[in-house]
Amino acid sequence: MANQRKTVLITGGCGFLGSHLAETHLKDGYQVICVDNFSTSTQSNASFLNSLGTDKLVIVEADVIEPWSTWADSLPEGWLEDLSHVYHFASPASPPLYQLLALETMWVNTIGLSNALSFADKFGARVVFASTSEIYGDAEVSPQTEDYKGNVNTLGPRSCYDEAKRFGESLLFTHNWKKNTKHGMVRIFNTYGPRMNPADGRVVINFLVQALQGGPLTIYGDGSQTRSFCYVDDLIRGIRTYAASKFCEPINIGNPSEFTILGLVQEVEKLFAPAVFERSFHPFPQDDPRQRRPDITRARTQLSWEPRVPLADGLSRMLDWLKTQPLS
Ligand SMILES: NC(=O)c1ccc[n+]([C@@H]2O[C@H](COP(=O)([O-])OP(=O)(O)OC[C@H]3O[C@@H](n4cnc5c(N)ncnc54)[C@H](O)[C@@H]3O)[C@@H](O)[C@H]2O)c1
User: Would residue 148 show up in a list of annotated catalytic residues for this protein?
Assistant: First the structure.
């Protein structure tokens, strides 16, 4: 049975979420193969994983768009025969980075995913694809259920990410349909926590870095747009529960507590009290969603999963970690 096997392969395994998936699997005694091209991460998460001092970790530096045979043959003997899951998490994830690497983002979520599916099939393993709340686009309904089909612009600056993820979902669905496989996908909502790249550009890490540097805090639009923020430990627990299930349909994994961006500023300021930071307002980016909140009924009922870490606690844990990091 696949779930008794003890090897997992994580594409993007040295990124933010990938490194947490790797860490928890290593703690549970798995052999872990991280494949990463370090296009949006630094070596710091790889160093962290190496510092765990285990012989059950292999980090492969490779682009998953290229054929996997170039490195697969050199993995430790017997590991792939024991392959349980391929977590396809490689992809730029923040708007500044996926816009910089727009074509690469499209290929990694399509060709890269296709490679992951073929590779997993060879070993009878299950793929879990990191999809995203961005497939809902600038949603006209809130909260977003998995049945909502989205409001996405095929041509805007976010389309390279949103539409590549949508194609990825279609590819995985069609692969299951035509090849009778049982791969799955999770729709991840904004997640934050230790080991995010400080230069990544997403709002939580941006605010914390800017606050540590004395401000100002960059706000796009008037700050009334909403987001929901999931602490990474909650997310990883949800993803692993999904991976262990037989679900093939997408499931929203995220925290349904909704905050405006100005509300997030206040939460950050509480950590630095009595400091108050200057706000620096910038134009609202094209096609940025105004409202983002998951309906997690499916995760609650089908996976018995829900987030546990309140935003204030998660921010405080993330700040403790960030204070140990070099900031440029
Ligand atoms: N963190 C979130 O809030 C969030 C939300 C929705 C979806 N996701 C998805 O989760 C996944 C991981 O996101 P993250 O936040 O950890 O981002 P990240 O940028 O920290 O990690 C992505 C990793 O993938 C690697 N990578 C990118 N292209 C690659 C390629 N072609 N070959 C090999 N490695 C490659 C990068 O170097 C990086 O280490 C992504 O697929 C992202 O779209 C994340």
Answer: no
When the pLDDT of each residue in the chain is averaged and rounded to a whole number, the result is 96
Domain coverage including residue 142: 7-322
- Answer whether 36 contacts ligand 1 (Cβ < 6 A): yes
Say if 241 falls within a structural domain: yes
What are the pLDDT digits (tens) for 119-169? 999 999 999 999 999 999 999 999 999 999 999 999 999 999 999 999 999
CB-CB contact of 50 with 59 (8 Å): yes
Q: Whose CA is nearest to atom 35 of ligand 1?
A: 90
252 lies in some domain: yes
Domain containing 237 — which CATH number?
Answer: 3.40.50.720
In a domain, 243, yes or no: yes
Ligand 1 mutation pick, 89, 127, 163, 187, max ligand atoms within 8 A of CB: 89
Out of 161, 192, 231, 242, pick the active-site residue. Answer: 161
In ligand 1, the atom with minimum distance to the C-alpha of 38 is 37
Residues 6+ apart with CB under 8 A from 81: 123
Domain count, the chain: 1
CB 247 within 8 A of CB 302: yes
Asked if 172 contacts 117 with a C-beta cutoff of 8 angstroms, the reply is: yes
Residue 327 in domain: no
